[in-house]
Specification:
By secondary structure, the protein is α+β, with helices and mostly antiparallel strands. Among the domains are: 69 residues, no CATH class; 234 residues, Calcium-transporting ATPase, transmembrane domain, CATH 1.20.1110; 221 residues, 3-Layer(aba) Sandwich (Calcium-transporting ATPase, cytoplasmic domain N), CATH 3.40.1110. Helices cover 45% and strands 16% of the residues. The strands form 6 sheets. A 9-stranded mixed β-sheet has the order 14-33-32-31-15-27-30-29-28, sandwiched between helices. A 9-stranded antiparallel β-sheet has the order 17-16-26-25-24-23-22-21-20, sandwiched between helices. A 6-stranded antiparallel β-sheet has the order 3-2-4-13-5-11. A hairpin with a 5-residue loop joins strand 21 and strand 22. 46% of the residues are buried.
Length: 1147
């Protein structure tokens, strides 16, 4: 029998329901109960079988002899379990019924095969094969911190260049000026960066430690002890010993006991729940971003047992190799030998041992790590830990993000280095390569090192700090946090915005807004009329209303009959809506009742039926109770449920009223499928279109009454179809279609609104006008995403929506892509499966076409798919991508983007902590990008080029000076002058550029087209760089040559004239370059000028005071400055008239 678990799995591994061998078909009812969301007749479809299984539980327990030693099963008696020695039998010899260890051995033979068969109470050796259950998000450890940080810094040419220049100063032959002037700026930049990285990593480490130290209870078998009283023994047999361990110590094969609101620490198979029905609800918001609760089902065989039996169980679980997909799981549960009763009953006889029972396991039986148990308590069996859990496999490691501006400046630094080297060679060549010419080359290189100013890094980093401060203190976007301060400029260059749906664009709060019944339509403001009609129908206020109308004039009886007809129609549709769903009422600790279901639409509809008077008060897998407006209870048996799937787009239920025995088939679903199923009508299509235009999610409600005989026929046929091995899904669907799904009575149409976040429509419109292409990536259904795309105005009013769903072959994909190629103005809606197919087969073609579309909506996306899409767009378009989300499932996408924005939402803070920027509302994005982003980029671009200009101009002057003085590598300005030039004499005015603005805030948000200009990257490009290069060349040469022309007889005079002219020139250039003069700039200019004048008195070695105060000095400096600055002012004036900037047209 060794191949039973494997063969049953392999033969049918595409779906969860595994067949049992033929010889056990008579026991199918007892054990072969598998619940799969995809194709089984669903939970209550098998409810009767489970009830039967439960009723037979005691009977079955009597069939087995007490044989505790055989419990050891695969472990060969490693654990001895037994209470009373007189009841024990010697172990049986190996027989065909003893479980085979074949699957267990195979689990470890091939290191690449990660599938596993794990027995209950596995050996230490087996457990140690699997990764430890440790959460680790740190980037560094004690050994890797320095090497990685230094590598990250010095891989930039910019920093490497300075390191080499600083080190060269330790060589006497190359020493020029103070060593400190070369080393201090570099050391400052490095220490700031290292401090920031160390702090961030320390915070990550703290969060990891907190997650790893959360404690959980694991179940262990009670130790074998002597005589117990019967009460003690009864307790020990139904309860297991528990031991509290930290999350990091959990191993594969452990049994974990979870309580309400506990985080699931590893991937578990659900064995037992506190609900007698064997179900429990979990919250998966950190995994797939959906806030509704999901139903999970315990393994039926284990649910029947007590917790004490579970730890002694002789069983094993097979699980496939770990994969990323959170919607699929393939496994089997093999019960080798049922648990023996604790004592032999008086006349019990050992029966023939039964073969192992194999049950299929699907994703419905599994609790993934990082989900939260929403109600009750549960026992789970650990199958995947640590790096093999679905949650960890779906998160990517954060990479250090570097802004595009920094990369562009790095490229410019290489050009400047080439310029420096060329200049040094030219000067040495002109001197005829005399003497130790290579030393001269190096000395020139160091003399000209100010061409690539280290102060650029310091200035830019300080600028980023200012931008971050402005963003965080903006009163219009409160509680916005900048977590990565190196990226504010990136916000000004976004071309693609990838957004999550649930919780980001929507609040995930559903509300029933409309009920349409053909001749009558009820809106949100007329729901009290529905409540009145319902009360009339259920006879609450019936008598009074008849009396009231009876007193009217003749013809009132007719009106009454019409009214009664209307109220019975209302009753039919409300009753059907209150019955046709998968909602369970859950009582909270404080006595309030909340409704839970896997779809928030259903909760909205059931909440609405309660608000009009028909309340769902009880629900399990076999029964449902409703309370009418008059307070009476209606009890219905659930006979079958056909769950909603993305293929069927509908959900059906067969119920029987317990009092009258009337059987009804109720179905609700999307209009596209329901139109064919319901009877002919003339209003459905038109009304559905009207509601969809309003952005409402529509569901069509229909009903069919069944006779007992007809239902019996259906049930027989359906059962036969459900146990088929081949084509089971089709067989079951055809039986449902033949007996139930035709000529249904159309009862009504509901419209449910998914409330949007504040100002989402206007935000998306503004961003679209700013030239940003918006993609919506969601884990939700195609229909839902489509509705939201319409209601958020992501899709323009008459824009065509093209749907690509359930594509299976390369030809289908090719046809769809060809269609899209010719219709680029449409909105594409694509599901996760088709998206994966497109990326696997036609990656480049798909991305090329999709990136040209105005809007794309991708549904049923896994977290990894979202991240892959972000990376692909970045790689293919080379444009900046911003991702925004609010749940743990968006973390990978946020980290994969150039700029990640996290929203602090209902789904917790996980996305906001992983993001570069954290906001509290989607609408804050407008101000963040169109105002702060635009300003940051413009200012940094201007600042960077000005600082480069400041370094170039002094190097040009040095070159001219050296050329005139026999090409000697002698410094023109030494010591304090050089230090002061880059710091106190120019720093404040130059830095005032970070507060420059070309338009005010209102204009920037009123004309989002201004933002579009920036995304082209023209503020800092090779063109603007060479313009500044020419300006520096002209000004440097003009100042130096004019100083020499007006040369006095002393060298000291050249220094004082040229340096004063240089400082004044820079101050004037700042005033010319800034777009809008502001108070800080004016103050910094004036204060710096005064400071310079005062400092002259303290630097007698550079300035001859008697000469400086003379009239000759003043007019010579004035002439030089006029020659260097006035032509530039004239050029700027002409340009503003001929080709004005876009922003200046608005002022």
């Amino acid at each position: 029998m060794s191949d039973i678990p494997l063969r049953s799995l392999r033969r049918n591994n595409h779906r969860g329901y595994a067949p049992l061998p033929d010889d056990r078909n008579d026991r199918q009812d007892d054990r072969g109960i598998a619940l799969s969301p995809g194709d089984s007749p669903s939970m209550p479809a098998i409810a009767a079988k489970i009830a039967a299984a439960n009723s037979r539980r005691n009977r079955r327990k009597d069939r087995y002899v007490d044989d505790p030693e055989e419990q050891a099963g695969l472990l060969g008696g490693q654990y001895e379990i037994g209470d009373d020695s007189e009841d024990e039998e010697p172990p049986r010899s190996q027989s065909p019924t003893t479980p085979s260890s074949a699957p267990l051995k195979s689990a470890g033979i091939n290191p690449k095969d990660k599938s596993r068969s794990i027995p209950f109470r596995p050996s230490e050796k087996l457990q140690s094969r699997y990764p430890p259950n440790i959460v680790r998000n740190q980037k560094y450890n004690a050994f890797t911190f320095l090497p990685i940080v230094f590598y990250e810094q010095f891989k930039f040419f910019f920093n490497l260049y300075f390191l080499l220049v600083a080190l060269s100063q330790f060589i006497p032959a190359l020493k020029i000026g103070f060593i400190l002037t070369y080393i201090a700026p570099l050391a400052f930049v490095l220490f700031v960066t290292m401090g920031k990285e160390a702090y961030d990593d320390y915070k990550r480490n703290q969060r990891d430690r907190e997650a790893n130290s959360q404690r959980y209870l694991i179940l262990e078998p009670p130790p074998p002890t002597a005589d117990h009283s019967s009460a003690e023994e009864a307790y020990l047999n139904t309860h297991a010993n528990t031991r509290s361990v930290p999350s990091s110590s959990l191993r594969v094969g452990d049994l974990i006991h979870l309580e309400k609101n506990q985080r699931v620490p590893a991937d578990l198979v659900l064995l037992h729940t506190s609900e007698s029905s064997g179900t429990c609800f979990i919250r998966t918001d950190q995994l797939d971003g959906e806030t509704d609760w999901k139903l999970r089902v315990a393994v039926p065989e284990c649910q029947k047992m007590d917790e004490g039996d579970l730890v002694r169980l002789d069983a094993e679980i097979y699980a496939d190799a770990p994969i990323k997909d959170i919607h699929t799981f393939i496994g089997t549960f093999t019960l080798n030998k049922p648990p023996s009763p604790s004592r032999l009953e008086g006349n019990s006889m050992p029966l023939q041992p039964l073969p192992p029972t194999v049950l299929p396991l699907t994703a419905e039986n599994v609790l993934w790590s990082n989900t939260v148990l929403a109600a009750g308590s549960a026992v789970g069996f650990v199958i995947y830990t640590g790096a093999e859990t679905r949650a960890v496999m779906n998160t990517s490691h954060p990479e250090t993000k570097v802004g595009l501006l920094d990369l562009e400046i790095n490229k410019l630094a290489k050009i400047l280095c080439a310029v420096t080297f060329a200049l040094s060679l030219v000067l040495v060549a002109l001197n005829g390569f005399r003497g130790l010419w290579y030393i001269y080359v190096f000395r020139f290189l160091i003399l000209f090192s100010s061409i690539i100013p280290i102060s650029l890094r310091v200035n830019l980093d300080m600028g980023k700090t200012v931008y971050a401060h402005q963003i965080m203190n903006d009163s219009e976007i409160p509680n916005t946090i900048v977590r990565t301060s190196t990226l504010p400029e990136e916000l000004g260059r976004i071309t693609y915005l990838l957004s999550d749906k649930t919780g980001t664009l929507t609040q995930n709060e559903m509300e029933m807004k409309k009920l349409h019944m053909g001749t009558m339509s009820y809106g949100a403001d007329s729901m009290d009329e529905v409540a009145h009609q319902l009360a009339v129908a259920f006879g609450d206020s019936g008598e009074q209303s008849h009396l009231r109308q009876g007193s009217l004039a003749t013809g009132a009886q007719l009106a009454t009959r019409g009214r009664r007809d209307m109220s019975s129609r209302v009753r039919d549709v409300v009753l059907s809506l209150a019955l046709c769903h998968n909602v369970t009422p859950v009582t909270n600790d404080d006595g309030t009742v909340t409704y839970q279901a896997s779809s928030p639409d259903e909760v909205a509809i059931v909440t609405w039926t309660a608000s009009v008077g028909l309340t769902l008060v009880f629900r399990d897998r076999t029964r449902m109770e409703l309370q009418t407006p008059s307070g009476t209870r209606l009890v219905y048996d659930i006979l079958d449920i056909f769950p909603f799937t993305s293929e069927s787009k509908r959900m059906g239920i067969v119920v029987r009223e317990t009092n009258t025995g009337e059987i009804m088939f109720l179905q609700k679903g999307a209009d596209v499928v329901m139109t064919k199923i319901v009877q002919r009508n003339d209003w459905l299509e038109e009304e559905t279109a009207n509601m969809a235009r309003e952005g409402l999610r529509t569901l069509v409600m229909a009903r069919k009454r069944l006779s007992g005989q007809m239902y019996k026929e259906f049930a027989t046929q359906f059962h036969q179809a459900s146990v088929k091995l081949d084509g089971r899904n089709d067989a079951m669907a055809s039986v449902v279609g033949e007996y139930l799904e035709h000529d249904l009575e159309l009862l009504g149409l509901t419209g449910v609104e998914d409330k949007l976040q504040d100002d989402v429509k206007s935000t998306l419109e503004l961003l679209r006008n700013a030239g940003i292409k918006i993609w919506m990536l969601t884990g939700d259904k195609v229909e839902t995403a489509r509705c939201i795309a319409i209601s958020t105005k992501l899709v323009a009013r008459n824009q065509h929506i093209h749907e690509m769903a359930r594509l299976k072959t390369a030809d289908e994909v090719r046809d769809q892509l060809e269609f899209l190629q010719n219709k680029l103005d449409c909105c594409l809606v694509i599901d996760g499966e088709s998206l994966q197919l497109c990326l696997n087969l036609f990656k480049n073609e798909f991305i090329e076409i999709a990136t040209k579309l105005s809007a794309v909506v991708a549904c049923r996306c896994s977290p990894t798919q979202k991240a892959d899409v972000a990376r692909l767009i970045r790689k293919h378009t080379k444009k900046r991508v911003c991702c925004i989300g609010d749940g743990g499932n968006d973390v990978s996408m946020i980290q994969a983007a150039d700029v990640g924005v996290g929203i602090v939402g209902k789904e917790g803070k996980q996305a906001s902590l992983a993001a570069d920027f954290s906001v509290t509302q989607f609408s804050f994005l407008t101000k963040l990008l169109l105002w702060h982003g635009r300003n940051s980029y413009r200012r940094s671009a201007k600042l960077a080029q000005f600082v480069i200009h400041r370094g170039l101009i002094i190097s040009i002057m040095q070159a001219v000076f050296s050329a005139i003085f026999y090409f000697a590598p002698i410094a023109l300005y030494q010591g304090w002058l050089l230090v002061g030039y880059a710091t106190i004499y120019t720093m404040a005015p130059v830095f005032s550029l970070v507060l420059d603005r070309d338009v005010n805030e209102d204009l920037a948000l009123l004309y989002p087209e201004l933002y579009k200009e920036l995304t082209k990257g023209r503020a800092l490009s090779y063109k603007t760089f060479f313009q500044w290069l020419m300006i520096s060349l002209y000004q440097g040469a003009a100042i130096m040559i004019m100083s020499l022309v007006l040369f006095e007889n002393e060298f000291l005079h050249i220094v004082s004239i040229s340096f004063t002219a240089l400082i004044l020139n820079e101050l004037i250039m700042v005033a010319l370059e800034i777009t809008t003069w502001h108070i800080y700039m004016v103050i910094s200019e004036v204060v710096t000028f005064f400071f310079y004048i005062i400092s002259i008195a303290f630097l007698p070695e550079y300035f001859d005071l008697s000469f400086v105060v003379s009239v000759g000095f003043a007019w010579k400096v004035a002439v030089i400055v006029a020659i260097s600055a006035v032509p530039l002012y004239i050029i700027k004036l002409i340009r503003s008239r001929v080709a004005p900037a876009a922003s200046s047209k608005l002022l």
